[in-house]
Amino acid sequence: MFGIRTSIIAALLSLAINGASAAGCATGANQHPSQKGRSQGSKNATPTPRPAGSENVSSDIKTLTQGAYTLVSESFIAVARDAETYQELRRLDDNLPILSADAFKQTAIVAAFLGQRRSGGFGVEITRTADGALRIAESTPPRGAMTTQALTAPYKIVSVPLESERSLRLEPGQTWLDSMRPYKVASGEFTMSGGFAGRIEEMKLEGGLSIMRHANLATIIFDLKGTGGAKARELKEVATGIMQADGLLRLARFNAGGLVEPPANLLAAKGELKNNEGDLTLSFESLPSGIADAFQGRGSLTAKATGPPPPKKASGRDSAM
Questions:
Q1: How far, in whole angstroms, is CA 153 from its chain's centroid?
Q2: Which residues of the chain have pLDDT under 50?
């Protein structure tokens, strides 16, 4: 009798244990995979750190148009701060958007052309870095992706606000760096004058610049220093100008950087590229500001190319260099 009672108790305990285990398994089986991962890893999960300085601040960049096909088949970047320069850009491809003169009030139009590619899937990315520079990069299709097997020429055009007409610095990718010709300043001088006290400050211009050419446009990336004045000054700016067939060049409007004290610090420049565009001369002069006692600047420089013209990578209706 005692043996039968013991067997019954053991059977009841076994049923209770197995039922509890089954209920636990059923709960796990019905749980959504995302819930499983969240419940299992939430206590020990740590966020993946981002490298310092890798943040992109791009909310102020407005895309005007972009696509995979344009008549500009070479790698080129244009920065227009005036309607005339932008109109010359539209001569390269009249499918670019029509903009009024009001679009250039404290705004720059940046057009980045990637150049000819053998297939689809390529593109242009324009973002702001954490320190305010404009980064222009090429995006490529993932390995093994299905793409259009035809020639493409990706491009992107954006507007960028420039409060108080501040300078615009670029960080172009290798595609565009390979399309630039470097120059070194051989001689240069600049004079800033004005202010309530009528101060005059003279300095020498040193450093270098890079030029990217396409058709009747020339984009200059300045990296100049003003030395010998009351304090160290610099011009780090990018501007696109119109170039005539005889080599004469005109930059209608760009920021003077630290060469001229704000608030009125816009420059225009005229110059010439000659000797197979190996020699550059430029003269600078402040644009009228309408601000009483504002500082003004003027100066000039000569520069010599330190590298050969970049090779052309595609053939098309437009010619450069």
A1: 18
A2: 1-57, 315-321
